[in-house]
């Protein structure tokens, strides 16, 4: 598998007037430190060295070429290269920096085809392709620096010995023109910039600004600083827990809130409400004729009291050491479940005596017609118009999606000329009935009723909370409970509507 390695070697000579830079780009047998660890190149690692395909970059920035390779010479010690520098502002700066020893290193980017383990423990590269060479600030090898700066003539090429091979291209003119397409490389392994990381806050800010403006030294600083990330020091990065606990905690009880409510008697598991079974009558009476006389009969409606409760056992450590406090959250959730349970119970009690809406004589179809019949049927029981319609969420969706024969919505606040009611969200008016959407209802539920047909009885302050400590284990039993009752005073006034 191919890898790209960057590491550094020193410049051995610069020729400012001739616009040449020479230096060893790859040493043989000497370990150089890269981000992949120590790397050593074998003497025969590079089988093809074509200077025509290699450009000289600035700090490995493929967008900033400053010259091109002229010659590569392979010796027993390594590979030397000579580069022509372009007459650009970057090229001029590079020649001056190399001559003054400010930027006096050469770094190569190579693609590794094969490697093995060297005796010195480094990675021994046995086959590689040279991709690019860059002028850099600090070389990894300090065995040589810039040897000299020629005054006016190009440097003498190194003398070849019997083992030396040289590949060159025709010398370019003093004003070379780059015509080769740029080579884009993505380093997989590279040497870390050797920069001072002991920065003040002000120095860091200045370096970040200069790096954004393209300053290569500032980029080195920011790159070196970025190498220490949170993934390297995960043991020092705390994981905070937010005080918000996610979960549906719903204390609403829409159906109970839509009916009459009263206080539960203080004792007993049943109570009775007097109820007319037979009422006296009044009729038109002729002169000297006995008036209508029907004896009234009063019986009673027996109402059953039921208990709802929920509990958990938790350790004392959970109570004392959790944040946010699990105890408080547990009580809050139990109270929510209590509200949902008693609301579901009230719906079930209302449906026990409810009567299905008649859909015959004549045949009734469509939401509007069915609800109109339900209102009519309910009215006949208590001789008052029902004022509530309770639906499950899917029935609510059916209602608000109703359209007339031309496709206009029936229940839409901005179209009153065609409205059979006004529905805003899960509240509103449907044919004069107050809309109650209850998620505690079952999918098919749709009830039309007067709010005083039912009465919900509940003890004050419900649900109550108790907690008992188990001394043997220091665990705490926590419970919420309450007593409720539903009186269906006029059960047949509740009508189910199959919409």
Largest sheet geometry: 7 strands, mixed, barrel
- Structural class of the helices, strands and pairings? alpha+beta
Radius of gyration of CA atoms, rounded to a whole number:
46 Å
Going across the biggest sheet, name each strand in turn. Answer: 1-2-7-6-5-9-8
DSSP helical segment count: 8
Low-pLDDT parts are 143-193
Large-scale geometry = elongated
Percent in helix: 10-25%
**Strand count:** 26
Cα(first) to Cα(last) distance is 69 Å
Beta-strand portion reads 25-35%
Mean pLDDT: 79
Which characteristics define this entry?
7-stranded mixed sheet, alpha+beta, single chain, 499 residues, 26 strands
SSE blueprint and pairings:
Elements: E1 3-15, E2 20-27, E3 32-34, E4 37-41, E5 55-58, E6 61-74, E7 78-85, H1 89-99, E8 105-117, E9 123-136, E10 148-149, E11 165-168, E12 189-190, H2 201-212, H3 216-226, H4 254-257, E13 260-263, E14 270-278, E15 297-304, E16 306-315, H5 316-321, H6 326-353, E17 355-356, H7 367-382, E18 388-391, H8 393-400, E19 421-424, E20 427-430, E21 433-437, E22 446-449, E23 454-458, E24 464-470, E25 475-488, E26 495-496
Parallel strand pairs: 1-10, 1-12, 4-9, 5-9, 13-23, 17-26, 18-21
Antiparallel strand pairs: 1-2, 1-8, 2-7, 3-4, 5-6, 6-7, 6-11, 8-9, 14-15, 16-25, 18-22, 19-20, 20-21, 22-26, 23-25, 24-25
Helix pairs in contact: 2-3
